[in-house]
Design a protein that fits this description.
Blueprint: E1 31-38, H1 45-59, E2 63-70, H2 79-86, E3 93-98, H3 99-107, E4 118-133, H4 141-150, E5 157-159, H5 165-176, E6 186-188, H6 192-200, E7 206-210, H7 211-220, E8 223-228, E9 252-259, H8 265-279, H9 282-291, E10 294-299, H10 300-320
Parallel strand pairs: 1-2, 1-3, 5-6, 5-7
Antiparallel strand pairs: 3-9, 4-7, 4-8, 4-9, 4-10
Length: about 325
């Protein structure tokens, strides 16, 4: 199953737009101010995505002022209710989320989920990478897979929040190896920085996350990458896929942005235009290449449908793995 799925009044903050031109083609910024809500601790993939959005939008002259709020915990399920409750109707607010939030809502049986915010745009997709500490006895994926199969409860793996992409990948791997996904010794962390520290410090046997979160430490030699979870290798990264090594499992982590509940169609349109302009900028393309993010841009009704499909498919997989 494919797991690769899914302002206050704006007009008052907008300068007049050139007649006949799309909003983002004018000299004026699309938005004077933008509130970025990150439902995760600093240092992880959602936080990095939000900071890159700020960097690119400022450089491209699309937004004048940014405000950030980080509220981490439970795969976004701690921050999400706050965003929904406090930002209702505000068209200059964006929440960064993605596939992790889909699974976390199901796993935590949260009364407020990704269904309660407004899909604006899917931005990136990033394959997961499985890493071990530099001094690990597991030199290759086959070494680690053997340990995982023989003793899943004693082979701890760090990753993002419970029910997220990292957790699902581990469950799918265990099932493929003939082990029980419920026996996974999965250690969930609210922020990428804490997970990295746990792997480097040898507190866990391995870690799973997006490549960008581990890249610095892989390059420095503190971590060893033994497999990536995409259908193809990450460009410029000499690490084989699980499929190449005989394990027919592939997942990727998509990230995107969502508007607050209660915003008008006009406000949705402006936020969509903003993300489209950002995605088309040279600065964004540079960031994609630098961070090994894959461009999977999708906006409008197509993204709304994609999110709904991802929720349905994720729930089915989690039930199959005994995680929901």
């Amino acid at each position: 199953m494919n797991m690769n799925r899914r302002r206050l009044a704006i007009a008052a903050g907008l300068a007049p737009f050139a007649a006949g031109l799309p909003r983002w083609a004018s000299a004026a910024p699309v938005l004077e101010s933008l509130n970025m809500f990150i439902p995760a601790a600093p240092g992880g993939g959602w936080d990095t995505t939000g900071r890159v959005i700020e960097q690119v939008c400022r450089a491209a002259g699309l937004v004048t002022n940014f405000q950030f709020e980080n509220v981490g915990g439970a795969g976004g399920m701690v921050g999400l209710p706050k965003f929904v409750g406090q930002r209702k109707g505000q068209g200059n607010a964006l929440l960064v989320g993605g596939s992790v939030m889909v699974g976390a809502g199901i796993a935590n049986k949260s009364p407020i989920t990704i269904k309660d915010v407004v899909p604006i745009a899917r931005l990136t997709e990033e394959a997961g990478v499985i890493v071990v500490p530099a001094n690990s006895p597991h030199k290759t994926w086959k070494d680690f897979a053997a340990a995982l199969k023989a003793n899943p409860k004693g082979t701890s793996v760090a990753g993002g929040s419970a029910g997220g992409t990292d957790h699902l990948l581990l469950g799918m791997l265990l099932k493929n190896l003939g082990a029980n996904p419920k026996d996974a010794a999965y250690v969930a962390f609210a922020g990428g920085g804490a997970a990295v520290a746990a792997v480097i410090g040898g507190q866990v046997a391995a870690g799973i996350s997006g490549y960008s979160e581990f890249a610095e430490h892989i390059k420095s030699g503190r971590l060893r990458a033994i497999a990536v979870s995409g259908n193809a290798r990450i460009p410029g990264v000499d690490v084989p896929t699980l499929k190449e090594m005989g394990t027919p499992v592939a997942t990727a982590n998509w990230r995107g942005v969502f508007g607050a509940p209660g915003i008008s169609p006009a406000q949705v349109k402006v936020l969509g235009e903003l993300m489209t302009a950002m995605r088309n900028s040279a600065q964004w393309k540079e960031q994609l290449e630098q961070r090994k993010w894959v461009d999977v841009f999708l906006a409008g009704e197509a993204f709304v449908k994609d999110v709904a499909d991802d929720i349905r498919d994720t729930e089915a997989v989690m039930k199959e793995l005994g995680l929901a």
